[in-house]
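Homework help board

Subject: predicted structure for assignment chain

Our instructor gave us this sequence and asked us to write out the predicted structure in token form, then describe one feature. I got the tokens but I'm not sure how to describe them. Can anyone check?
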Amino acid sequence: MKKYNIWDKAFVSIKSNQDAYWLGFVFGGCTLRQRGDSFSICISSNVYENLKDLSEFLDFKGNIKCNDSYYVVFFSSKEIYNSLVQWGIPTSKRTLSVAFPLLDNKYIPYFICGYLDNNSSLCIANRRNGSISELRLEIRGPYHFLLPIKEFIEDDFQLNKHKRICKKTTNGSCSLTLTGYNVKNLLIKYYNGVDKIRHRNKELLVRVING
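My token output:
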């Protein structure tokens, strides 16, 4: 792997909304691998521009590669690797043991936005109707990662605590689905301080927030 300069201290600590956002984004599509003295990080996204923005945040000058229907950046950094492991991203040998990071509560909404922008789907279930009541937000991930998100959202919006996390596949991947005005209220509140909306369905998200 070709060596590029990078901001090695990017995730040592989370001290700003932007730090929290990009940590969440990385959680949404990151693979870590160690071989000997090589500490490799691969971050993927469906949107090329999002990885350009991440590269700018990391001060990374390497290439963004296209891999089938998504884009990836590869780089090597022992410091970033160790920081991400400490925050809860698993190594490739324990891919479903991802843990929700212990963040200050004021940064959790930004972390969630970053994660949503890289690992969630947003749609209107009934396109003919097209109303806010038909909004559907599906957040994907391991159960023990989604559970703190579920509890934080329920407490923040005083929702009834009956929403279930559904198992999606036999490998342990799960989903948390929110619908209707709960989605609108979450998007308006959490994206209020985000510098830029990067969700793969950005047009719908912007329409919901501005509508």
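Reply (TA_rk): Your tokens look well-formed. For the description, you could write something like this. The helical segments are 17-27, 48-58, 78-87, 108-119, 143-157, 181-190, 202-210. That's the kind of observation they're looking for.
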